[in-house]
Please model this.
Amino acid sequence: MMSHCLDINPEPTDLEQILSDCRETLKYCVKTGHPHFFNQLSTGIDVIGMAGTWLAASANTNMFTYEVAPVFTLMEEVIFTHMRNLIGWQDVDAIFVPGGALSNLYGVLLARHHAMPEVKRAGLSGDKRPVVFTSEQSHFSIKRAAAILGIGTDNVVFVRCLGNGKMDLQDLHEKLRASQQAGAVPIMINATCGTTVLGAFDPLPELADLCEQYGIWLHLDAAWGGGALLTRDYKYLFQGIERADSITWNPHKMMGVPLQCSAFLTKHKGLMKMCNGMGATYLFQTDKHYDVSYDTGDMSIQCGRHNDVLKLWLMWKAKGDLGFEEQISKNFQLAAYFRDKVKERAGFHLVLDKIEAPNVCFWYLPPSWRTRAIEKVKHAHLHEVAPLVKAKMMESGGLMVQYQPLGDLPNLFRVAVSNPSLTTRDLDYILEEIDHLGKEIPLPPDWDDETLRDNRH
Ligand SMILES: *Cc1c(COP(=O)(O)O)cnc(C)c1O
Model:
């Protein structure tokens, strides 16, 4: 089928064919900038950001030293200082990282280095067992980071979430105590600011108190929620943020910067270099003719690094803080609009009434199913609806919305608003389209089977 046109041949291909390949490539791509694309948290296409991406590719600069990337290093400093001010820290060390999952890896790595600096040299010896605490609805990258760093996935303690998606503090208290009693060394709590599915914010002031009490690292995964720091109306969600030790913030999500653009920031100046520095003499000569503290490369776990700052800097310059505030506030307002529409409309049922980040999660009941209240629809049945609707959605190609199970909850749809070009009409369309796609889904054959147990209520 397609494979023969994707093959690389021994002979060169002429320019006309290459241009046609470009057109074909775009034709078969998912249109992530389209206002009916809701599948991920990164949506939309910002023209200035795209220009920044092209310019960065034209400059083709590696970010490891000031020597080779003087302008971009200074831009990074400006951007990170700006972010630091929004966070409310005195000091900052930060770098752009290939995605939020890796930013979270840095968070766990620094927490480990902070608690057990000897591990960098001697490796994990087994006489001290580091443990990481995170909520069961937090991003999977925390668990993977523990696997990568030799901490082990068994040493990630998943704290229960309340119905609203926030970490259950009582459960955390108990698990912290139990883990200490078992002789483990708690090294960090990961707090999520805007969970990937429900958009919930963990309670920062209480988590910061606990971290102080136990003397452990507080990492904030604000990969999704971070952009809200730019708004006066929604910044309250981050109350207590300045007490965090490190933060993941993805401008490629709520701020609409082209992929990829993820910042990792810590208030512990110098720690990243202590943790990751190898002092490679071929790159980081200490006797250069300039202030070598501008060489940021030795803070990284990479060698060379992509230029992710130019597109963000250009967008920020173009919009100003106020432009970003307006863009991001609109995401929240549109999400509230959509939440209200879901609530009103027959066949649609909100998972959460009170939303924090601009995420709206809901279940859908096809028309013939509505003789029964949703609470009475069996878990296993409801679980089937979203995949059936999604299959039709992908075949008709007019909409892309993500579904997923969440803990014990059956498959639910998540609409997250991050595309700046959205209007209320695009959100109305989601409901029309899902209702259209789902209208003929028949009743399941065992609809009336009383032996099917429901574990949801
Ligand atoms: C998206 C997301 C991540 C991962 O970010 P990537 O850039 O996709 O690696 C981590 N945490 C949260 C809460 C996220 O929403």
